[in-house]
């Protein structure tokens, strides 16, 4: 049974996070600092990607080291269409999501036959396969990446071209994905995923095979990550194979661990903390990871639930 304080935190924390993000454009306007708005947009995009990974990592126990491949697929869908003079967001975004979903369906059907470290390695292999495929696309920049000469368009509105409108679009999609996944996690579907994480044998003894549930969850997470990739391409107006490297997958896992596994708003909190620490520490030294690494270890060891765990620890002390 969840404690009353935990239930209250689960209600208040998302409101605080989304409220703080929603106030960024106002602060950026008052401070006359465009960088803050662009940085907050990057944070919201990465939070969307981390949210998708925490759904399968924290709730289904699927440690995927190839999750960034779906981000790259979404980004390249936008980039390749733009290179062929197709700028409509009503085409590029659904196509990005569909392409990632199909890739996840094929690779997930194979990967989910394995467990543990074998699942980690096979997802890593599929992710690297997508990465090297992107580097071989010489017509679309290859290793150097692909520059977009603008952003996607949507019905002659400034929703993509204007930075403030675009930020609120990303924030709205993040809120929508959060609401959808939260509803799924509280449904019978989510309980099956949680049960399979705890004991697959017990679940099968009840006559429920978790394979199909895991595959659907894997595809859904991939599609949300691809949406983040499509938004990332528009925000940066640049697409690179590095978007789907295993380093990016590792960063997403770190965000989930930092915020708190098994908590959807923990993924958002972890993305915010990771991006802010990266920006702040990289301004101090180029070896910022030497500082960030021990900080992450301390949070994981003493928080036992990431930053959310530290908040609970602070309340109990």
Query: Beta-strand percentage?
Result: under 5%
Round the mean pLDDT to the nearest integer and report it.
89
Please report the total strand number as a whole number.
2
Q: Helical content, roughly? A: over 70%
Silhouette: globular
- Oligomer state of the chains in this structure: single chain
Overall structural domain count: 1
Strand order of the largest sheet: 1-2
Largest sheet: 2 strands, antiparallel
Uncertain stretches of 5 or more adjacent residues: none
Ends: how far apart?
21 Å
Notes on the protein architecture:
By secondary structure, this protein is mainly α. The chain has one domain. It is 75% helix and 1% strand. The chain is built from 14 helices and 2 strands; from the N terminus they run ααααααβααααβαααα. The chain has helices at 4-22, 24-31, 34-58, 68-83, 89-111, 116-135, 163-185, 188-198, 200-205, 210-236, 246-259, 264-282, 289-303, 306-316; strands spanning 146-147, 238-239. The model has no long low-confidence stretch (mean pLDDT 89). It is found in: Cell membrane.
Structure at a glance:
This is Branched-chain amino acid ABC transporter permease. The protein has 14 helices and 2 strands, in the order ααααααβααααβαααα. By secondary structure, the protein is an all-alpha fold.
């Amino acid at each position: 049974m969840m404690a009353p304080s935990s239930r209250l935190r689960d209600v208040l924390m998302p409101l605080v996070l989304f409220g703080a993000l929603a106030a960024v454009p106002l602060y950026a306007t008052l401070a006359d600092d465009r960088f803050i708005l662009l940085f907050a947009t990057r944070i919201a995009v990465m939070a969307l990607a981390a949210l998708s990974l925490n759904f399968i990592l924290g709730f289904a126990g699927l440690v995927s080291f190839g999750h960034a491949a779906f981000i790259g697929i979404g980004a390249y869908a936008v980039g390749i269409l733009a290179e062929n003079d197709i700028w409509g967001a009503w085409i590029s975004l659904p196509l990005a999501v569909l392409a990632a979903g199909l890739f996840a369906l094929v690779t997930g059907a194979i990967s989910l036959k394995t467990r543990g470290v074998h699942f980690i390695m096979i997802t890593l292999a599929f992710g690297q396969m997508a990465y090297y495929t992107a580097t071989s696309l010489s017509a679309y920049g290859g290793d150097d990446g692909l520059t977009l000469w603008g952003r996607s368009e949507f019905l002659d509105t400034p929703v993509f071209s204007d930075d403030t409108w675009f930020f609120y679009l990303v924030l709205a999609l993040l809120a929508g994905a959060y609401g959808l996944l939260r509803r799924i996690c509280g449904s019978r579907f989510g309980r099956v995923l949680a049960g399979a994480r705890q004991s697959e044998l017990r679940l099968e003894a009840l006559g429920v095979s978790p394979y199909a549930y895991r595959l659907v969850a894997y595809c859904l997470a991939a599609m949300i990550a691809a949406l983040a990739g499509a938004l990332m391409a528009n925000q940066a107006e640049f697409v690179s194979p590095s978007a789907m490297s295993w380093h990016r997958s590792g960063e997403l896992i770190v965000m989930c661990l930092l915020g708190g596994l098994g908590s959807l708003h923990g993924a958002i909190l972890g993305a915010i903390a990771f991006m802010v620490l990266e920006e702040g520490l990289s301004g101090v030294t180029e070896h910022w990871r030497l500082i960030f690494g021990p900080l992450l270890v301390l949070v994981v060891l003493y928080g036992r639930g990431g930053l959310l765990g530290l908040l609970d620890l602070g309340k109990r002390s």
